[in-house]
Amino acid sequence: MNQMHRAEFQSPIGIVEITGTDRAILSILFSEKTDMEHPVGPGSPAVIVDCQRQLEEYFKGERTEFSIPFTSAGTEFQQRVWSALTSVPYAETVSYGAIAKAIGSDKAVRAVGNANSKNKLTIVVPCHRIIGSNGKLTGYAGTLTRKEWLLRHEKEVGEKRQSAGLV
Predict the structure, then answer these.
(1) CA-CA distance, 42 to 55, in Å (whole number)?
(2) Running DSSP on this structure, what letter comes out for residue 70?
(3) What distance separates the 2 farthest-apart alpha carbons in the chain?
(4) What pLDDT, in 10s, does the model give residues 91-105?
(5) Is 136 helix (H, G, I), strand (E, B) or coil?
(6) Vertex 115: Cα angle to 76 and 7 (nearest 5)
(7) What's the pLDDT score for residue 51?
(8) Mean per-residue pLDDT of the chain
(9) Is 5 strand, coil or helix?
């Protein structure tokens, strides 16, 4: 069995806790702690160090896609939802209903919302890009304030990249 590792780093919107094995990331979650107990350091596995680097690049506006190995445990339905989340483009939003339709379960809007709330790979599996059908921000395990920040950040970075001809 792979050894479990945990490390934290300070993001612009709070401490992010990364959990993984030597081979893959298992969770990326915001913590409500104010002090880091396990900062990413020299003893951290390469996959954790790389995850932190990619997330820091994301927060600096230098990264719009992730290439870290990750895995998540969930039901077959949850896996379908999470896979659909990864197809939502950077700086764009879609509704829970659009995700339900994308996975072939048009009427499962609430179940999609429930699966979305169980996503443990925040930002990398971009559940923050899913909004209500009325265009309003709804539920986000990392707090609505963070969801709003992430969406605003992506919009601003996307606009800068577009004006610089990088898109």
Answers:
(1) 18
(2) B
(3) 48
(4) 999 999 999 999 999
(5) coil
(6) 100
(7) 96
(8) 90
(9) strand
Q: Give the chain's length.
A: 167
Place of tokens 């979650």: 29
pLDDT band at 142 (very low <50, low <70, confident <90, very high): low
Give the tokens for residue 98: 């659009």
- Residue 50, CA atoms < 13 Å, CB-side half-sphere: 14
Of the pLDDT bands very low, low, confident and very high (cuts 50, 70, 90), residue 144 is confident
Q: Which pairing describes strands 130-131 and 94-95: parallel, antiparallel, or unpaired?
A: parallel
pLDDT score, position 163:
81
pLDDT 10s digits, 117-139: 999 999 999 999 998 877 777 76
Rounded Cα distance between 124 and 48, Å, is: 13
DSSP 46-66: HHHHHHHHHHHHHHTT--SS-
Q: Which of these is catalytic: 91, 108, 124, 127?
A: 127
- CA separation for the pair 85, 102 (Å, rounded): 10
Q: What angle do CA 161, 162, 163 make, to 5 degrees?
A: 95
Residue 127 among the catalytic residues: yes
